[in-house]
Amino acid sequence: MIARALRMCAIVFPLVLAAQTTGMLNLYPANPVAEQTELNQAVNEANGSAVDVTRALEQHLLKYPNSARRAEMEATLYKNATDANDTPRIVLYGEKLLLGKPDNELEVLDRVIRALEVPGDEEAAKKAMGYVIRYEAAVKDQRERPPEGHTTVAQWADLADRAFARVSILHARAIGTLGNSGEALTNADHSWLAFPSSEAAHERARWLVKLGRDSEAIDRYAEAVMIEDPRALFSDRDRDRKQATDLYVKLHGSDQGLGDLFLKAWDRTAQAMDDRLARYRAMDRNYGLTDAFEYVLPSGANASPDAAPLDMTKLKGKTVVIDFWATWCVPCLGQHPLIAEVKQKYASDGDVVFLSLDADDDHSLVAPFLKAQKWDERVYLEGGLAGLMTVASLPTVMVLDPAGKLFSRMTGFIPNEFERMLSTRIDEARAAVTK
Question: Are 32 and 69 in contact (CB under 8 A)?
């Protein structure tokens, strides 16, 4: 029971659990012994309860305001507040985190601004605007950076657009609360154009009503109801449906024709989502795909200039072995000749295909690496497939059965057993569809 409570607080007190298991007496050498004892007792007595942990940490910080672990405790208090949707504490501890530059800065800014906008008063709105400006600058910086990790250009653009859409909504609410409904509507429009969502449609309708443009507001409320948005709560959709109905009856005297209005809103929102998908597909033909056999993999560094990409649909019905590797991966280097041995074993079998997919962030490193290692097999770029298949470490070898399903995932390198294990998995995958 005590261990469970300590594990919950491991982020804040990484040394507490170690002390329990090693018998260390001096957990925090920079703090008085009395503080150490009280802190350990408070955490133990919280017994894994976030509410009790919050109360214990706040009481501890009141008594020891200069604690060496203050920043870590405040980070945990912020997390507990967000988990509990505790608005005052989200603001209190979120602002403390924002005195620095936390790794999850955009997330903290979003939560703090939303919490500040709950009261709807000018003082809180002014403070929110200050954070909105910081949020916008951080989003602009993200937009201008190249894609990180295995994020494709389209996925990176999608993430940036979503962030811009969120901050535009928060800007709309803050500036609108401060009395500028016209600018609020402009920001809500920007949000919709960047990423059509139920929240953006609602925000557009809200400020149209403020500006006395009820007829346009009805259409926007209808879009908030009809758009495909899994994040939208039923209660929010029902609220917007009622607001659209009330405005429509107010203008027309009855709800006759309202159904057709909602159907037209469905058509508009479906078109907006299609346009968005087409925009990203123009950047990356694999964007949004959820089936590996629909992917088209870019030609790799050792391909001839006129080499065609690999259309994975042509591999349907075959057992496919995919080797995810990178130039910096030492185990990948050791595993390569073993894969070559297994590949040779199935060389005469047309129903087994081996794919070598480079997962380097910097593709310019690949060609000289292949030349130095004298690898002559065809290499393709992973093209986003690593993200789809949640490749978290290298080397990773996957076996897809002829039905296109993931049959095996081999992570890491086991030199003595690798060839046997991979061969067994290939044989089992080939036989799977015949059972």
Answer: no
CB atoms within 10 A of CB 88: 10
What is the 3-class SS of the chain, one letter each residue? Answer: CHHHHHHHCCCCCHHHHHHHHHCCCCCCCCCCHHHHHHHHHHHHHHCCCHHHHHHHHHHHHHHCCCCCCHHHHHHHHHHHHHHHCCHHHHHHHHHHHHCCCCCCHHHHHHHHHHHHCCCCCHHHHHHHHHHHHHHHHHHHHHHHCCCCCCCCHHHHHHHHHHHHHHHHHHHHHHHHHCCCHHHHHHHHHHHHHHCCCHHHHHHHHHHHHHCCCHHHHHHHHHHHHHCCCCCCCHHHHHHHHHHHHHHHHHHHCCCCCHHHHHHHHHHHHHHHHHHHHHHHHHHCCCCCCCCHHHCEECECCCCCCCCCCEEHHHHCCCEEEEEEECCCCHHHHHHHHHHHHHHHHCCCCCCEEEEEEECCCCHHHHHHHHHHHCCCCCEEECCCHHHHCCCCCCCEEEEECCCCCEEEEEECCCCCCHHHHHHHHHHHHHHHCCC
Name every residue whose Cβ is closer than 8 Å to that of residue 282 and which is 6 or more positions away in sequence.
none
Q: What is the pTM of this model?
A: 0.79
- Token pair recorded at residue 182: 């016209």
Instruction: Please list the rounded mean pLDDT of every run of 10 residues in the chain (435 residues).
Output: 36 34 35 76 84 92 89 94 96 96 94 94 95 96 86 92 97 97 98 97 98 98 96 96 98 96 98 96 92 88 64 94 94 93 93 93 85 87 90 94 93 89 95 68
Which residues are CB-contacts of 47 (< 8 A; sequence separation ≥ 6)? 1, 2, 4, 5
- Joined together, the tokens standing for residue 185 give 């509507």
Task: Give the C-alpha separation, 273 to 271, whole Å.
Answer: 5
Q: CA torsion 200→203→209→215, rounded to 10°?
A: 10
Torsions phi, psi for 105 (to 5 deg): -55, -45
Cis peptide before 102 (omega within 30 of 0): no
Report the alpha-carbon distance of residue 223 to residue 137 in Å, rounded: 30
Tokens 């653009």 identify what position? 157
Could you give the number of structural domains in the chain?
1
Which residues constitute the domain of residue 335?
A: 297-432
353: CATH: 3.40.30.10
